[in-house]
Amino acid sequence: MANIIPFQAWHYHPILWPSLKNLVAPLADNLSDKEIKHLFQNPRNSIHLTPISIKLETDHAAKKLSEWKSKNILVQDTSPGIYVFYQNYKFKGETYCLKGFVALIDLRDSKAILRHEDTLDTPVKNQVKLLKQTQLQPNPTHGLYEDPSFRLEPLMDQAMSSPLFEFENQDGVKESIAVINDPQSIAKFIQVMESQTIILADGHHRLEGAIAHQKLLQPQTGASKNEAFNYHMMYFTNGSSNQLKILPTHRLFRNLEIAQEDIVTRLEKFFNIKKLNSPRDINNFPLVTNWSFLLLFKEAAYFVQLRPESFRAFPTKSPEAVKNLDLSVLHHFFVEQILGIPKMKQTNSDKISYERDMEQCFKQVKSGKATLAVFTREISIQEVIAVCKSGSTMPQKSTYFYPKTLTGLLFYSIEQKDINFPYI
Question: Which CATH topology does 248-399 take?
Fold first, then answer.
């Protein structure tokens, strides 16, 4: 199902590895305008090779890439390899190690990659524009495979005993990369993955951009040819592991045309409601039951849970895996039925924004920049996999996988001269 191959990655010159912390960049949708401006001040930071650069000048990324290659700031490995990638981090006092590897996946069977999010036209077009200009993929998307037997982990552990480089990023995550060049070991990775269907965890716009770019070029060469643009760089982790976290993304609402007391009154039609003694009690109120949420107003907070009889009246024709999601319930019963924002307008509504940091939600509501915050539970990997296998998608901003991949660790060139080796 999933056809993967090793590749000859481009990366920063080894002399620059000690300063990688200052050369990598988080993904654009995780950055504020202030953070983006700060990263662009470093003339060698990898953010210059991302779609954000298009806002500076049309061919900024292409100029930077040409300069960096000519000055050996970026260099290419001479042998194809599987790149082992570990992320060691702490979460709620516990220590975790997310183990995975970076390889190329064949886009000619894109049905082998299941998605759980819809994409927007503009970000996809920006990805295509960047690929046309640079012929470079500056960061891997993140895919999950399922291997309860953990057949690849021993090979990855062995490789990681001699990492190429490792450093601690700005969030305190230890990033480590090693490479496997041994043909027998590489064959094992290919063999394990060929029976897999991949669940796309992160990078929907990047993947769709690569597929759109591939379709533009295919008529020129034919779909059966082994062209570099038929492949996409992906970071693969084992979904059978418990080392990957999915953090909740909360909802902020502003400029509502309904008063707080009317919202509370309308809630009673669908939800059981409990008023908290203080808004700050939210910090000590865990969400552990299905279809439950915490609502924060400036001077009041509520715990609400959808009543079972309300759920039975849920009119959606979506698969059960989607219908049962907390966020499906939230967006139908609360956002549409109570706040009056139709489903078709929710994706681009200026009344809705998304925030992962609870403290930022408190600040937004207290300052009056937001009228209301709704805190949600995290979704499980099993729920993501179930939705993907159903062929449907989740509501917008349903998942935030942690830890994230970074831009600047490895680059994949889709120039044909950079991929001529026996694996294709």
Answer: 3.30.1760
The CB-based long-range contact list for 352-358 (8 Å cut-off, 24+ gap) reads: 352/251, 352/252, 352/253, 353/251, 353/252, 353/254, 354/249, 354/250, 354/251, 354/252, 354/396, 354/397, 355/249, 355/250, 355/251, 355/252, 356/247, 356/248, 356/249, 356/250, 356/400, 358/250, 358/282, 358/283
Q: 16 by DSSP, 3-state: which?
A: helix
Residue 257, pLDDT score: 86
Please report which confidence band the pLDDT of residue 213 belongs to, taking 50, 70 and 90 as the band edges: very high
Percent of the chain scored above 70 by pLDDT? 98
CA distance 12 to 406: 14
Is 148 a residue whose pLDDT tops 70?
yes
Whole-angstrom Cα distance, residue 397 to residue 248?
Answer: 9
Where residue 402 falls (left for φ over 0; alpha for ψ -120 to 50; beta otherwise) is beta
Distance of CA 208 to the CA centre of its chain: 13
b or e along 380-400 (b: 16 or more beta carbons within 10 Å of the residue's beta carbon)?
A: ebebbbbbbebeebbbbbbbb
- SS3 per residue for 18-31: HHHHHCCECCHHHC
Lowest mean pLDDT, pick from 29-33, 200-204, 250-254, 326-330: 29-33
Nearest residue to 101 (alpha-carbon basis) of 184, 179, 8: 179
Q: Which two tokens stand for residue 244?
A: 């990957």
Judge contact between 102 and 410, C-beta under 8 A.
yes
Taking residues 194-216, report their average pLDDT: 93
Question: How confident is residue 306, by pLDDT bands cut at 50, 70 and 90?
Answer: very high
Could you tell me the residue ranges of all domains in the chain? Answer: 4-245+402-418, 248-399
pLDDT band at 180 (very low <50, low <70, confident <90, very high): very high
Length of the chain: 424
Model confidence at 225: pLDDT above 70: no
- Angle among Cα 355, 88, 36 to the nearest 5 degrees reads 40
